[in-house]
Amino acid sequence: MSFLRTAVRSTIPRTSKATISSLGAVRTKVSLPDLKWDFGDLEPFISGQINEVHYTKHHQTYVNGYNTSVEQHAEAKAAGDVKKTIELQQHIKFHGGGYLNHCLFWDNLAPNKQGGGELPVDTAFAKKVEEQYGSFDNLIALTNSKLAGIQGSGWAFIVKNTENGAVEVVQRYNQDTVTGNLKPLVAIDAWEHAYYLQYKNVKVDYFKAIWNVINWAEASKRFDA
Ligand SMILES: [Fe+2]
C-alpha cells in the first residue's frame, strides 16, 4: 500500500510534465517546407550554393528557434514566470517571422522552366497592378527602391491590403513579417545571407536579378485567396 502511494505520487508529476511537453510539441512544432525545385534551378540568378545554405542553415535555424522558444514560453507561462514569457515573445517574433517569411519566399520563387519571371496576364492581380501602377515594371521599380532603402537586414513585401483591395509595397526590418490587413503576395529577402555568396556587396544586382525567378502565378493565387 505504501509502495503504491509512493509510486502514484512520483508518477503523476512526471506524467503531467510529459503530457504538457508532448502536447506543446504537437501543437507548435514547425518544420522546413518542401521546395518545389532543386537548389540549382534558379541559376544564374540565384546560385545553388546560396539556396542550399539559405534553406538548410538559415531557414532551419528559424524553424529550430521558433520551436524551442514556443516550448520554453509554454513552460514559463505554466510556471507563472511573466518576465521570462515577455523575453521569449521577442524570440518567438523573430524566429516565427523568419520561419514564415522564408516559407513565403521559397514559394514565390520559381525556375524559368516552371514559369519563373513570367508576368501574369488577365489575373485579378495583374489587372490591379496595371490599374494602380500602369505596369509591372513600375511595381518592380518601386519594390527595388524599398529593398535598396533597407539599412541592415530586412524584407520588402508586395502585399494586398484586404481593407481596400489595393496592391502595396512595404518594408520590414529584421524578420518582422506582414500581419493584419496586409496579405503577402511576394516576399523578397534583403538579408546579406540571401545574396552575399554570389553578389558580394553589390546587392542592387541581386535585387535586379531576382525578378527573373519570381513566381507571379503564386502571387496571383495569393491575391485571389
Ligand atoms: Fe533569409
From TrEMBL:
Domain Manganese/iron superoxide dismutase N-terminal, residue spans: 31-110
InterPro entries per record: Fe/Mn_Superoxide_Dismutase, Mn/Fe_SOD, Mn/Fe_SOD_BS, Mn/Fe_SOD_C, Mn/Fe_SOD_N, Mn/Fe_SOD_N_sf, SOD_C_sf
Keyword Manganese in record: yes
Domain Manganese/iron superoxide dismutase C-terminal: residue ranges: 124-222
Enzyme superclass (EC): oxidoreductase
GO MF entry, a single one: manganese ion binding
Keyword Cell cycle found: no
Cofactor annotation: Mn(2+)
List of residues binding Mn(2+): H54, H102, D189, H193
GO (cellular component) term, any one: mitochondrion
Gene3D superfamilies: Fe,Mn superoxide dismutase (SOD) domain, Iron/manganese superoxide dismutase, C-terminal domain
Role noted for this protein: Destroys radicals which are normally produced within the cells and which are toxic to biological systems.
PANTHER family named in the record: SUPEROXIDE DISMUTASE 2, SUPEROXIDE DISMUTASE [MN], MITOCHONDRIAL
Family named by the database record: Belongs to the iron/manganese superoxide dismutase family.
Protein name: Superoxide dismutase
